Amino acid sequence: MTFSALAAAVICSGSFPLFWFIPLTGIFCLAAGASVLNQVQEITIDGKMKRTLNRPLPGRRISPRNALIMGIAINVAGILILYLTKNLPCLLLGLLNIAWYNGLYTWLKKKTAFAVVPGAVTGAIPVLMGWSVAGGSLLRPEGYFLAFVVFVWQVPHFWLLMLSFGNQYLEAGLPSMMTLFSVPAMKRIILSWTIASSAASLLLIFVRLVQWNITIYSLILLNAFLIFLMIRTFFMKSSGSNRALFIAINIFLMLFFIILMADRVFILG
User: Fold this and answer.
1) Could you report the per-residue pLDDT of 34-65, keeping only the tens digit for each?
2) How far apart, in whole angstroms, are the C-alpha atoms of residue 70 and residue 80?
3) Domain covering 2-268 assigned CATH 3.40.50 in the classification
């Protein structure tokens, strides 16, 4: 989340002044604090899943009380840092994200297998926070186009986890997409969302967040490779694992941001 905020700031301004480390530290603290609080909220669930069984709380390496104090303290530190930077939009977005993640999303995960769709807002908001760090107006559409790419990307990113660990979610008492769709259907759904994410990223060319020909071609090739890799993994026998594809889709987002940052630094720098 902090990296996506940094990337958004660079994409907005085409520069990277060192004083940005202060608000970015605040954003990092809010992300870390929200994660700690989430693990406190879900200690029982984490203790029932093999994937999360060894986290510090279910592994009894940290007490719930100390974790709660830590989570609150880190969040307060983040709020104070953003308050002192006098960037009210960034602070308000950060508070909204905590409420959305630790309130709405954490509750929805216990109610519906589709919680990731509204939950994806929590990954898009840091993009807007970074945009505001660079002085970008939240009344203009460019920042929202960038945030929308991250919003759509998170759905196939999470459902790839569901494809690998869906049974563990059921054992922990959480709704799972695997009870609603067959494995082939899940693969088609994930591929469809990945294509939608690619389409959203290519829209940035038309709002001129990508202008340099080399970066435009790089972005097109990156998207084409991800879709090819997903088709190959899903629909060709002995052609890769879901775990490898999960790693690939994370690398995709990192490279996506790097390409856009390079473009803006070249064009505006």
Assistant:
1) 999 999 999 999 998 888 889 999 999 999 99
2) 15
3) no
Domain boundaries, the chain: 2-268
Give CA separation, 186 vs 71, 142, 163, in Å.
35, 32, 7
What is the spatial distance between Cα 73 and Cα 71, in angstroms, rounded to a whole number? 5
Task: Choose among 206, 209, 96, 222: nearest CA to 146.
Answer: 209
pTM: 0.92
- 136-184 pLDDT, tens digit per residue, is 999 889 999 999 999 999 999 999 988 888 788 888 888 888 888 998 9
The set of residues, in sequence order, having a beta carbon less than 8 Å from that of 245 and lying 6+ positions away, is 160, 229, 230, 233, 234
Residue pair 100/83 in contact by the 8 Å Cβ criterion: no
pLDDT at site 208? 85
Reported as a pLDDT band with limits 50, 70 and 90, residue 125 is very high
| 162 CB-contact burial (10 Å; exposed 0-12 / middle 13-18 / buried 19+) | buried
Question: Which residue type is seen at 30?
Answer: L
Torsion angle defined by CA atoms of residues 57, 59, 62 and 65, in that order, rounded to the nearest 10 degrees: 40
27-66 burial, b if ≥16 CB within 10 A, otherwise e?
bbbbbbbbebbbbbbbbebbebbeebeebebbeeeeeeee
Amino acid at 111: K
Name which of 202, 62, 177, 60 is nearest 112 in CA terms.
177
